[in-house]
Give the backbone structure.
Amino acid sequence: MRSYIVERSFRPGEIAAESGVYIVLHVHHRAPHSVLVLAGMRFPRCRDCGDRVRFHLEQPARKWDEPRTPTVLVAEGEPEVAQQLREELASEGYEVTVAASYDQAVGLLGRAQFDAVITELDLEGERAGLELARTALRMRGGPLVIVSTHNPTVHSLREVLGMRIHYLVTKPIDVGELTSALSRLMMRRAITKSGVYEAGNLA
């Protein structure tokens, strides 16, 4: 009797048990391409395919299989929003620390290393959010910086985008959009640091 090896495919939302280069198979809108996924990260959705995109392990990379959870600092003055982000990000496999003020966030950045910082633009007033983003971006080997905003002025929006933050999300925050963007940014940074490059973006 002939036997076959069935290659397992992974769906968006599943947690990668093994680091490596994965082939990304889209439904129809683009050709297959490769991404580096680290163990412990969730496979992201595709903006066009949604949950129908699939991932297949092409090349294991066990040297990246560190027992390490990605860390995120959330600087958010609205308790309800902060709690929602904490719960949603934790469910995606992130270790989340919340700061309610600029001083608290800066203090945490000085004491611990974070993979990403998510700060609201209007944290204690517009300038505090901008300054926190600027501080994080200036750090050596600094974190990814995502800024959330509700009603930005044209001036503040230009200033934020001019700082070359990694992502801008509007309030009320679409958590699915945020977690998908964060996952893609994490992958892209890991690919850059490792010297393995993906053939374009996920979507």
